[in-house]
Amino acid sequence: MGSSPCGAIRGVNFLAHSLQSRAEDMKKRRESRCTQKTISLLSPLGKIQVSGCENGVHTIQILMDVAPAERSGEAPLSCVVNDSPAEMSPELQRCVEWLQAYFGEPQTAGSLPLPAFHHPALQGDAFTSRVLQILLRDVKFGETVSYKRLAEMAGSPRAVRAVGGAMRRNPVPLLIPCHRVISSSGRSGPYMGGKGDHLKQWLLTHERLGGKG
User: Fold this and answer.
1) How far, CA to CA in Å, does 50 sit from each of 11, 38, 57, 114, 157?
2) Rg, the chain, Cα only
3) Distance (Å, rounded) from C-alpha 37 to C-alpha 26?
């Protein structure tokens, strides 16, 4: 007795699912082999931790351990390395230099190369990756964009909530400027899940003033 067409289809679907799962597992294993190193910076926002490997930056964390620095016309804002590994990959070094320029000489940050990124959320053509790459490419220093407009730029005008979700999943804030995404009403909107709203205001003011006191 021959096998039924339905049974054959189920077998093909199972095989396809197994192959996809195996490919995803291999991808995770490759990523897990990254030798990540972490650098700690003291910035006007408090301590910032940058983690990455030789392939690129994985994450940036703003620890919110102190209140943001107040501006002073007498001294420029600074961002200094507080703790670093003995050897720093070129991509981590590039990230440190960019952050130092962003805070200390923000008018020069746009001319510096960004480091490569090596986080799963920024790879492939998933919605989160696409939205974050568009934000990075099209919304420049000192500019803002609404969640609604960014959804339109990504080709999904109804995906306003999804854009907000993509901002929350941004693994490299500051480098990919999710703080520049605001509400259509002009309000700044939430940052870091609502815990860093004051930091968002600080960053927007920093860019509006061009880093000047």
Assistant:
1) 46, 5, 7, 14, 33
2) 21
3) 22
**Token couple for 150:** 């960014």
Packing angle between helix 160-168 and helix 127-138, nearest 10 degrees?
Answer: 80
Structure tokens at 53: 């490997």
Model confidence pLDDT, tens digit, residues 100-157: 999 999 988 888 999 999 999 998 889 999 999 999 999 999 999 999 999 999 999 9
Q: Which residues pair with 145 in a beta bridge?
A: 181
Backbone angles phi, psi at 171, to 5 degrees: -80, -15
- Contact criterion met (CB below 8 Å) for 147 and 189: yes
**How much is the mean pLDDT over the chain?**
87
**Residue 85: Cβ within 10 Å count:** 11
Q: Return the active site residues.
A: 178
Q: What is the Cα 68 distance to its own chain's centre?
A: 20
Q: Which two tokens stand for residue 11?
A: 């077998």
pTM for the whole thing? 0.81
Alpha-carbon distance 23 to 124, whole Å?
Answer: 14
Q: How far apart are CA 87 and CA 45, in angstroms?
A: 25
Tokens of 61: 């964390």
Distance from the Cα of residue 28 to its chain's centroid: 20
